[in-house]
Each structure stands twice: as C-alpha cells, then as structure tokens.
Amino acid sequence: MRENLRESTGTPKRSSRRVAYSDRYIPSRSGTDIHANFTLLNENRKSDGTVDEERRSKSSDSDASYSFLLKSELFGDSQGQASPHRTSKPLSDRSSWKHEQSTSGNVFKFQSETVASPAVESQKAMLRVQTPVQRAKRKISKVPYKVLCAPDLQNDFYLNLVDWSSTNALAVGLEDGVYLWSACTSKVTKIQDSHTFLNDIASVGWSPRGKELAVGITNGDVLIYDAATLKLVRRLGGHASRVGCVAWNSSLLSSGSRDGNILNRDLRCQEDYVSKLSGHEQEICGLKWSPHENELASGGNDNKLLVWDTNKTTPCFEFNQHIAAVKAITWSPHQRGLLASGGGTADRTIRFWNTLKGNQINCIQAGSQVCNLAWSANVNELVSTHGYSQNQIIVWRYPKLSKVVMLTGHTTRVLYLSVSPSGESIVTGAGDETLRFWNIFPGVSSGVSSYENPSLLSPNRLSIR
Question: Which of 83, 111, 433, 449 fits as disulfide partner to 102, beta carbons 3.0 to 4.6 Å?
Fold first, then answer.
C-alpha cells in the first residue's frame, strides 16, 4: 500500500531531452483553432440550437482564404504553395484552387518554384498599369512682353546688329553708334567713341563671359570694347571690306567679311589674326562656333555652307544644296555634330546636317526667306525668323520638325535674332525699327515657362535711346 502510494505521489522524472532556447520569442499558433476562439459560435446555430453546417462551411472557407492571403502578404508568394492540405492540381488550373487553413508548423520554407496566388497576381497587375503623366501644358504668348524703339536700325540682310550677352546686356548697332540696354535695369548706355562714324557699324558680338564686345565696321576693322568701362581696348585689322559677322569661342574671335575671308584672332597675341580661312567667293553673312568649339560653320552670299576644323585652314565639308545666301546658322547643343542652316529668298528651306559624316539629314520648306536660326539650350527646339511675305517667327520641335507656334508682329522681314542668357526669351529686330521680346522656351528647371504674368505680356513701347 505504501509503495503504491509513494509511486503515485512521487515527483515525476525529468526528461533527459534538452530543450534549446533562443534569444528571440517566436510564437507558434499551429495548434490554435482561430475559428473556435475568435468566431461567435451563435452565428452558426439555428433557432432550434442545431448547428448550421452550410453556414459553418462557408465561414470556414472564408477564414481559410483570408488566412492564406495574409500569409502570402506577410511571408511572400511562396507561402501559397506551402499548405499540405491543398489538393494536387496542375499549375495552369489556378482558378480551381481551394484555399484551406494551413496547420503547418514552419511557414519559412525554401521552394523550388514560386507560385503567386491569384489575389496577389491581381494586385500586381493593377500596379503594372502605368498612369500617363499629366504634363503642364505650355503656354506661349503670341504678344511680345516688351517692345523697344530702335530708330535707324538698318534693313540689311547681310548685317548682324543685335546680340544678347551672358550678363543680360543687349548690344544694338544703330546708325549713329552702339547702344547697350540692360535687361535688369532697363538702362540705356551709348558707347561714346570717336573711332566710329555714321553708317560704319556692320556687326556686334559679345564674348562668352560678357566682358568684351566686338564691333565690326565697314572699313574692315574689328573694335574690341571693355564692357565695364565702355572704352576701346584694341583695334584689329586684316579685312579689305566691311565685317558683317563676328563669332566668339573661349579663346578665339572669328570675323567674316565681304572680301570672302574669315580671320581667327587671339586677343592674347599681338598679331591682328592668327589664321586666315579662304573658301567663300562672296560676302560672308553667317558665322557660328559649335558648342564644343572644335568646328566653325560659315555661310555666304555664294550659297555655300562650309564647316571648318580649328586645326585646319581648308574646309572639312562644303555643302552646296542651298540656292540662295546662307545667313541663318545654328548648332544643336543637344547632339554633337548637328548643324542647321537656312537659305534666302530663292531657297526658303531649313536644312539639317551631320558634320561628323558630312551628309544632309533632313530638309523642310519654310515658305519664306530664312533670316536667322537659334537652337534652344533648354529643350530640343529651334526658332527661325523669316522675311517676305509674312515676316513671321516660328518655333520648331526637333526631330519631328513640327511647328510649336508661329508669331507675327513685325511689319518688315525679321533680320536680327538673339537668345537671352536664361534661354527662355528671344529678341527680334527688323527694318520696322523695333526690337520685340518674346518668351517662347521653358525654363531649365521647371520645364514650363516661368513668365506667366499676364500683366507683363502687354506691349510696352520704350525707346532704346
């Protein structure tokens, strides 16, 4: 009796199996009946107290589907394949899968193949739908936001009398001298110099940093003025006739003349010019350096467009497709070796060239004399100014070459064009003795024109003198 009592009341022996503990507590709910613990049992009973098996079955299926979807979201799509109670079905027959509540102990398994549940795939498909980006529509006013009177601005196709500097100063060559207009203060200053005379000014051009101003005159000389003191610092000769165009790069100043020659000048040297380029037979009326400053494009009254290399005195390419004078020249700042040129009254075309291969890329009919071209640095668009008969200004989208907008307002051909340092505005000049300021390109950061104050878009006629 005592032995039996001792055996029944004695302390049970500890199991020799050691339990491994970790520093993290991971609860296991594999043996828990979530349906029994968290569902109101009365919902599954009829009024007479019996269990409604149909309702209980539907509730169980719903709970199993929710549990399966929850595990798929928490532990990944592979959990959808981890349930041991799922009936074996082909992978292609996903619509007939039946999700049951899993009683598996370990849900973290390496799967040889990952299969996503229909609900998860449906959500991913919804995320893959790309909503089109709504860009703010660009508004270009067809009215200039400022108009300046420029008395006696010459109506000569072969001259270049307007240039906008990087310091926001506009230089204009009028009949009685060179005038500077500040876009910041609207102050007008005339360069007082006894070296220039009436009807002498043929071209103006700012240096890249806006510290020097080059003025070409009719006797073949080029005058260099200091922008801060407005004093003449150097007089350069070499041409036999008027200098109708000048072009700067970081180290050289190039000038084109009616004598058909181009002179490259280095202001650091004592000589008037360091190299002479001869290739045109008539007056040179267009001259532009490429953005990389390794190529120089020149257009002349001989209908030729020449491309020069900085290290050679003979042209790399000679294009003869234009049938009129080539004054309008511009380089693309977005694509290396892309050059655009426009022809005069008999030509009326804008042609695009690849100066890396030496071939023509495209050609469009402009409908009238092309006086100027300028490529925007902010967007891949260019602007052209025209002569008879509409005297219009057109913004082109490249490479589609579709018209963005056409502006009118000048009563004579638009001979002069220059772009502001911000790249948003342009100034145009014509023989109607007016300078008109237009806001046509978007800003660099915003992508949309920042000049949207309607009160500033009304014409304000001021005098540059």
Answer: 83
SS3 (DSSP) at 41: helix
**C-alpha–C-alpha distance, residues 158 and 256, integer Å:** 11
Whether residue 171 contacts residue 213, with contact meaning beta carbons closer than 8 Å, is answered with: yes
- Give the list of residues 6+ apart from residue 109 with CB closer than 8 angstroms, or none: 78, 82
Tokens of 312: 């050679």
Q: Is 293 left (phi over 0), alpha (psi -120 to 50) or beta?
A: left
- What is the bridge-based pairing of β-strands 146-149 and 461-463? parallel
How does pLDDT run across 210-225, given as a tens digit for each residue? 999 999 999 999 999 9
H/E stretch holding 149 reads strand 146-149
By the 8 A CB rule, do 320 and 331 touch?
Answer: no
Strands 370-375 vs 222-226: parallel, antiparallel or unpaired: unpaired
231-to-86, 245, 351, 428 alpha-carbon distances in Å: 93, 21, 40, 27
Q: What gap in Å lies between CA 333 and CA 384, rounded to an integer?
A: 16
pLDDT digits (tens, 9 = 90+) for 152-183: 999 999 999 999 999 999 999 998 899 999 99
Burial class of residue 224, CB neighbours in 10 A (0-12, 13-18, 19+): middle
Label residue 71 left, alpha or beta by phi (over 0 means left) and psi (-120 to 50 means alpha). alpha
Helix (H, G, I), strand (E, B) or coil at 313: coil
CA distance 159 to 176: 15
Chain centre distance of CA 224: 35
Region for residue 262 given its phi and psi (left: phi exceeds 0; alpha: psi -120 to 50; beta: otherwise): beta
Q: From residue 216, give the alpha-carbon distance in Å to each of 23, 63, 241, 416.
A: 86, 89, 10, 16
How many other CB atoms sit within 10 Å of the CB of residue 260? 20
Beta carbons of 102 and 71 less than 8 angstroms apart: yes
CB atoms within 10 A of CB 54: 9
Q: Residue 364's beta-bridge partner residues? A: 350
Question: Which of 440, 315, 305 has its CA nearest to residue 363?
Answer: 305
Q: What is the DSSP letter of 456?
A: G
Residue 209 is encoded by which pair of tokens?
């940093």
pTM of the prediction? 0.69
Q: For the chain, how big is the Rg over CA atoms in Å?
A: 40
Q: Is 220 left (phi over 0), alpha (psi -120 to 50) or beta?
A: left
pLDDT in tens, 321-355: 999 999 999 999 999 999 999 999 999 999 999 99
Q: For residue 427, what are the CA distances in angstroms to 110, 403, 447?
A: 69, 19, 21
> What's the Cα-to-Cα distance from 376 to each of 98, 166, 267, 334, 425, rounded to whole Å?
62, 15, 29, 9, 10
Q: What is the DSSP letter of 53?
A: H
